[in-house]
Amino acid sequence: MNQISPALADTASEARQPDLRRVNSNPDFWYPVAWSSDVRKGKTVGVTFAGIPIALVRPEEGGLFALYDRCPHRQVPLSQGIVNGQTVRCCYHGWAFGRSGRCIDVPYLGKGKLPNGVRSYPVREAGGLIFVFPGDPEKAKTVPFPKLAQTDNPAFKTRHFSPRVNCHYTFMHENLMDMNHQFLHRRQMGQIKARFLGQDRGEDFIEARYSFMRSGGQQPLAERLIFGKHKDLNGREQPVEEVVTIRTEYPYQTLRITDKDGDLIMDLWAAYVPVDKDQRVTQSFGLLSVLRPKTPLLIDVIWPVLGWFTNRIFLEDKDIVEMEQAAWNEVGYDRNVEIFPIVRELRELLVRCGCPQDVKPAPEPEKKPA
């Protein structure tokens, strides 16, 4: 009997379903692209979503607006331009564009017919973040806006983070959803084992619940300060002290930790935004809300420790997902052998809600002349 080589078997399997690493982010959602503090009054900032250049413009008065970041005249970035009232002027010839993207002035044209404008994007600010809707602007009116951790809850203190990672966004979803990878963090967290408690799923979300059991090593200081000291049971199995709930509700991901009574202790919200056209570079935006201890100002004392601890954990995750991307780059398709059911279902969700790369994006529309 002829044997099929592993490589050929992988190729046959890959042919039966879309390669997850070739599934683009669906643009018909609200995506964070910058922090509000990054765009000062009277200034512009250039960002990208999946290779699409976008200029964020904040006038001295009035709200921020977002335009396609290329002047139609010579394709110079509008983000290099000058904010003038409620317009942005291209730095090259001074063409002016308003909030709607319409060209409203060409200094040397006189009263002649004005040229085409540029696309504008729906934009919102919340939780210290600037969001744009890069897809169909009509859908922006009905697509739900995400709940951003506990940014509006004074009982919590919130930390911002925005690391850039050289990998496809789907690796980030898999990494957080699969808590069986705690072996990776053994130096930071000691020897702990994830216990899968159950799951929930729907058309646009999947959720997994875990608790953790320590089998060796000391409880990290940051963990002890936030959750309290866990008793040493001399090798006996630990009871459920906290429940960790991880949810991908496309395209966002959350991690919520509750104590044994069901009270919320920590709430993480994250979005993974593709930067380049091939979506091999991801800009992460995260909000981490931690319940303030009853002791006044204690949260301010432990905040640097928490920051150091979470950063060390993230750097280990960053290294590992970039290794996964490098392995994909070597062969050009996904050879992952996934056996954990919750991750298999997550992958199906990401394919179902995303956009396979063979679907051509619509060209950037131009505004008609005034």
TrEMBL record:
GO-annotated molecular function: 2 iron, 2 sulfur cluster binding; dioxygenase activity; metal ion binding
Pfam families cross-referenced by the UniProt entry: Rieske, VanA_C
Superkingdom to which the source organism belongs: Bacteria
InterPro entries in alphabetical order: Cholesterol_7-desaturase, Rieske_2Fe-2S, Rieske_2Fe-2S_sf, VanA_C_cat
PROSITE patterns (UniProt xref): RIESKE
Domain Rieske: 30-132
Keywords carried by this UniProt record: 2Fe-2S, Dioxygenase, Iron, Iron-sulfur, Metal-binding, Oxidoreductase
Xref: PANTHER family: 3-KETOSTEROID-9-ALPHA-MONOOXYGENASE, OXYGENASE COMPONENT, IRON-SULFUR DOMAIN CONTAINING PROTEIN
UniProt name for this protein: Aromatic ring-hydroxylating dioxygenase subunit alpha
